[in-house]
Design brief:
Layout (H helix, E strand, L loop, with lengths): L2 H12 L13 E7 L14 E2 L8 H5 L19 E4 L1 E6 L11 E6 L5 E5 L11 E10 L9 E8 L4 E8 L9 E8 L9 E7 L7 E9 L12 H8 L5 E4 L29 E2 L5 E2 L5 H10 L3 E6 L16 H15 L5 H8 L10 E4 L11 H15 L4 E4 L10 E8 L1 H6 L3 H4 L6 E9 L20 H16 L4 E6 L3 E3 L10 E3 L4 E3 L1 H10 L5 E2 L1 E5 L15 E2 L2 E8 L4 E8 L5 E8 L7 E9 L22 E8 L2 E6 L3 E8 L1
Parallel strand pairs: 1-30, 2-13, 13-16, 16-17, 17-18, 18-19, 19-20, 20-21, 22-23
Antiparallel strand pairs: 1-26, 3-6, 4-5, 5-12, 6-11, 7-10, 7-12, 8-9, 8-11, 14-15, 23-24, 25-28, 27-28, 28-29, 29-34, 30-33, 31-32, 31-34, 32-33
The structure holds alpha-L-arabinofuranose.
């Protein structure tokens, strides 16, 4: 055990005490579950993820596997930020750009004393495992320049000068004043011991004149070996959640801080040299290297249904597109729909096919805007109907998701967002029991406990969490149980945000933390994982009693909750498995005896339990996985007997479990 782990647990033990949510508990529960051959279907989208671009360097500098920071000199309105020179001087030039989209480039003028080069240390360092890297750059020698050897040497090098790999790139066939792209591969045979490394491009000694570079890129091997792809370890952390849906690209990043900085879908596709990028909503610059097609490819690769957000005329500075000027924005989303779904007889369908995706994308849920309840002018009342009627007329088989119900008539689906305390999520357990049927359907596409202070007046500022705790994660699973119980109306929910580059943080807590070399899973990640990977497809009836509660009241004690225990029973009809999900917000363990009635199975076998919990007696709000101390909490696996249609299982105090029982 590391010293920091010892310190965390020691601190935790000191803080054991009465908890505001504690009530007198009855610790033995009888749970009756009725097996059936039909019932409410649970959508496969039930537990998802958000891939919110830009926030916490989650895309550039995160999931997007590009290792070079400011590869096209776009940061800070055009700059050499992140670049240094050796053996020469560098300037930012605008003369004869490589493309309209990339107006600025770096020009290197050797000083005549040996090798001249440029160097880039990545977003927050560059990890260099021993493997093959794929790189490229655009190169333009100025009139009258001489590259002594017609070569640019690309290297991966430590800050202390160790070269891990190097390759001479022949820069033949490029005339003075002309741009040409060159590609290379570097294979390293030794792993660097840390991330203090750089990519270096060098001109041979004796070179004279000046030489311009742009779009300097290097990728490690990517998830599923995709070109222009995503970082394998971060992608795996998404994939291991088995997310039913993935909401992208935002979040606020769809809106931009101003209308010109909004997400413009067609500026994110095609060759990188034609992607201008835009100012980041949360920080830095959005290269849009992880563009619409890369995002949808990632969704396909992890088997998640996209919940794709479209810009809908509201930006974060409060600027709104007036009703009279909305038409071009509506046309843009119609073009995007054509791009997703149309065939080769349509110009945007052709564009998709030309860019390598012949089949229409399998996108079933499209969100119109983001958090439009924040628009104090109330303009969603004209924007939603205008977008929705045009979009649903063109593509009626898509589920269109509104971002608020304020001022609009009932949409097919609405996206609710909740960031709050554990108490809030526990208190809201019955929210979806009582929302109007038949609709609208609900995506709870952003939720998280962000403050462990239950009586906080403002959870955004008071008691704000840096990382999720066992207490926060168990409360989130109470809310997830409420989704499954109400699967007739709730299409799914996801914790938000997911990604946090620990070197560049705008929002906490997050599901997955990372730096250049390492990925850490939060406690909330584990809590979501046990629910997402054990998903039934049919809701079963269940009810609980204990010494105090002997009759189940619909919508009351025994129905979905009893005392401090929350539960839902579902069935995986393919494998004939019963899946019981539990969240115990009591500080004491609760023992459940489950009986399956109306059984269709043999009534015996071995159940498997997956549990996330704090050590007994420890205040769950102090137990967390941090970047420095990542393995405090994981998933505890155990088995238990299922005999005579009965099983018994004990959920630890402040614990959450998924039980899988072969019927
Ligand atoms: O996930 C963080 C932010 O919270 C999202 O961008 C926004 O939609 C919400 O306000």
């Amino acid at each position: 055990m590391r010293l920091s782990t010892v310190l965390i647990l020691a601190t935790s033990l000191l803080s054991v005490g009465a908890h505001p949510l504690e009530r007198a508990s009855n610790n033995t529960v009888s749970l009756s579950i009725t097996d059936a051959s039909n019932g409410t279907a649970i959508p496969s989208t039930m537990h998802g993820v958000i891939l919110e671009t830009n926030i916490n360097s989650g895309s550039d500098g995160g999931l997007y596997a590009e290792l070079v920071y400011n590869r096209a000199f776009q940061v800070n309105g055009g700059s050499l930020d992140g670049w240094t020179a050796k053996g020469g001087s560098i300037v930012l030039s605008m003369d004869g750009p490589v493309s309209t989209a990339l107006p600025a480039h770096l020009t290197l003028t050797p000083n005549g004393n040996g090798v001249a080069g440029i160097s880039n240390g990545g977003f927050s360092g560059i990890a260099l495992p021993a493997q093959t890297y794929v790189g490229s750059f655009y190169y333009k020698p100025a009139n009258g320049s001489k590259n002594a050897g017609n070569v640019v040497t690309a290297s991966l090098r430590s800050s202390s000068g160790t070269t891990y790999g190097s390759v001479p790139v022949k820069v033949a066939g490029v005339g003075p004043g002309q741009w040409k792209q060159f590609s290379f591969k570097i294979t390293t045979s030794t792993a660097a011991s840390n991330a203090n490394n750089a990519i270096v491009l060098e001109l041979p000694a004796g070179s004279t004149g000046s030489f311009s570079f742009n779009l300097i890129s290097i990728f490690p091997p990517t998830f599923k070996q995709r070109g222009n792809g995503v970082r394998a370890d971060i992608a795996q952390a998404f994939s291991d959640l088995k997310p039913g849906f993935i909401r992208l690209p935002g979040g606020n990043d769809i809106e931009g801080n101003s209308i010109p900085d909004r997400y413009i879908w067609n500026a994110t596709i095609g060759p990188l040299v034609n992607r201008p990028g835009r100012n980041g909503t949360w920080q830095g610059y959005n290269t849009e290297g992880l563009g619409l097609m890369e995002l949808l490819t990632f969704a396909q690769d992890i088997g998640a249904a996209p919940l794709l957000a479209f810009y809908a005329g509201y930006s974060l500075n409060g600027n709104v597109v007036p009703q009279s000027q909305l038409q071009p924005y509506i046309q843009s989303v119609l073009d995007e729909l054509d791009f997703l779904f149309a065939g080769s007889n349509n110009q945007f369908g052709r564009l998709r096919i030309q860019n390598g995706q012949s089949a229409p994308y399998n996108v079933k849920n499209i969100e119109v805007g983001n958090e439009d309840f924040l628009d104090s002018s109330g303009s969603y009342k004209y924007r939603w109907p205008a977008f929705y009627s045009a979009m649903s007329k063109a593509y009626p088989n898509v589920d269109y998701v509104a971002t608020t119900l304020q001022g609009i008539s009932t949409p097919p689906t609405v996206d609710n967002h909740d960031y709050n305390t554990p108490k809030y999520f526990i208190d809201n357990f019955r929210r979806y029991d009582t929302v109007p049927r038949p609709g609208p359907k609900v995506f709870e596409a952003e939720f998280a406990v962000i403050s462990d202070k239950d009586n906080s007046t403002n959870p955004f500022t008071d008691g704000r969490l840096q990382t999720s705790s066992v207490k926060s994660a168990v409360a989130e699973n109470v809310f997830r149980i409420s989704f499954e119980r109400n699967a007739d109306v709730v299409l799914g929910g996801c914790y938000a945000p997911v990604l946090q580059n620990v070197a560049n943080v705008q929002w906490t807590p997050n599901l997955v933390l990372f730096d250049a070399s390492k990925v850490v899973k939060s406690v909330s990640w584990y809590a979501q994982q046990i629910f997402g990977t054990n998903l039934g497809n049919m809701l079963l009836k269940s009810g609980a009693t204990n010494a105090n509660v002997t009759t189940v009241t619909a919508g009351g004690e025994g129905d979905g909750k009893i005392g401090n225990l929350y539960f839902v029973a579902t069935k995986d009809t393919t494998n004939n498995h019963l899946i019981v999900k539990l969240a115990n917000v009591d500080s004491n363990p609760i023992t459940i005896t489950g009986s399956v009635v109306g059984n269709t199975g043999s009534g015996k076998g071995t159940g498997s339990a997956y549990t996330v919990a704090a050590p007994g007696g420890v205040d769950p709000s102090t137990v967390t996985n941090t970047f420095a101390n990542p393995n405090v909490v994981g998933i505890q696996q155990s088995t238990f007997a299922y005999n005579n249609h009965q099983w018994t299982f004990t959920v630890p105090g402040w614990g959450t479990s998924a039980l899988v029982i072969p019927l």
